[in-house]
Design goal:
339 residues, alpha/beta, seven-stranded parallel sheet, three-stranded mixed sheet, 12 helices, 42% helix, globular
């Protein structure tokens, strides 16, 4: 297996590479990343000297450079994680999301189709794994779950760009016979997440004794998935998933935003008592985000039944480990924020 991981210097990508770099199935692991604000090679300091590992600083929007990487490294398998992923940024600058998430996926599919066409049995020896999000399904009410057959109903430029790239991957499977799998995951959390998403934002705000902003009434619900559990599921789908299938990956951990914020405040009060006072006093409610989906929740029964995957971390355990990691790695946080 000559594996290409796109976005490997990012949050989920770097955790994935740490998990799989020593898998015996892998002969070569190529990390393709253009190192935007959310990509940091420091995330991979412990693997950069591994003889299997190679890094390519390439923008997915550069179709010729993408094709060169796939050809030169004789890529046989792809785990496509690279994407612009922050909903707030997609609202203020949707163009980057369309070009990176949709056009970038198109360029990668075309490169693989071109190179793999020379293989006498490409369906058996190659695979394109597209990593997506549950946000493509839109918003749930108080009950129910997203399944693999839930109709797409994206409500932000980010989720629309991911939904369209999902459809493109599906089309390449049905039109060109590409061996593809798609995964749609719930909200990830854990080490190396750039401090713009909810959990690291709250941790950093509390540490700095700044106000902690919470959108609307704070009762928007998300299903939280520990990033290392997600990485385990991604590897299973790459190596054992059925050609042409989609798998939903969820953490079975539904939490309202305000409850998460309160829990983080309490954990920091416990772990860093020298900060002084109750951190909950820093919570402030702000105007809700446009198009803010009310609830996401994943039904992960398919991946559990077919591939045997279940998340190993309950949220209370994972969030404690995450808060501890950020408290112990403030130099990393400051370096990525400065950059």
């Amino acid at each position: 297996m000559n594996l290409l991981v796109t976005g490997g210097a990012g949050f989920i990508g770097s955790n994935l590479i740490h998990l799989i770099i020593d898998k015996p199935e892998i002969t070569k692991l190529v990390n393709l990343d253009c190192l935007t604000y959310a990509g940091h090679l420091a995330n991979l300091d412990t693997v950069k000297s591994n003889p299997k590992y190679a890094f390519e600083k390439v923008d997915l929007r550069d179709k010729n450079a993408v094709l060169d990487v796939v050809k030169r490294h004789a890529i046989t398998h792809v785990m496509h994680l690279a994407a612009e992923s922050h909903v707030d940024r997609s609202i203020t600058g949707p163009g980057d999301f369309v070009h990176t998430n949709f056009v970038g996926t198109f360029n990668l599919l075309e490169a693989c189709r071109s190179v793999w066409a020379a293989d006498s049995s490409p369906v058996k020896t190659t695979r394109f794994h597209h990593v997506s999000t549950d946000e493509v399904y839109g918003s749930l009410g108080a009950t129910g779950y997203f399944t693999e057959t839930t109709p797409y109903a994206p409500n932000s430029p980010y989720s629309a760009s991911k939904a369209s790239s999902d459809m493109l991957v599906r089309a390449y499977h049905h039109t060109y016979g590409l061996n593809t799998v798609i995964t749609n995951c719930s909200n990830n959390y854990g080490p190396f997440q750039f401090p713009e998403k909810l959990i690291p934002v709250v941790i950093q705000s509390v540490m700095a004794r700044k106000l902690v902003p919470v959108y609307g009434d704070g009762m928007n619900v998300r299903d939280w998935l520990y990033v290392r559990d997600h990485a385990e599921a991604l590897w299973l789908v790459l190596t054992r998933g059925v050609n042409g299938e989609t798998y939903n990956i969820g953490g079975h951990n539904e939490w309202a935003n305000i409850k998460i914020v309160e829990l983080i405040c309490d954990l920091i009060d416990e772990m860093a008592p020298k900060l002084g006072g109750s951190s909950r006093k820093l919570i402030t409610f702000v105007k809700d985000r446009p198009g803010h989906d009310r609830r996401y929740a994943i039904d992960a029964a398919k991946i559990q039944k077919e591939l045997g995957w279940v998340p190993a971390h309950k949220f209370e355990q994972g969030i404690r480990e995450t808060v501890r990691w950020y408290l112990d790695n403030q130099p990393w946080v400051q370096s990525v924020l400065t950059r």
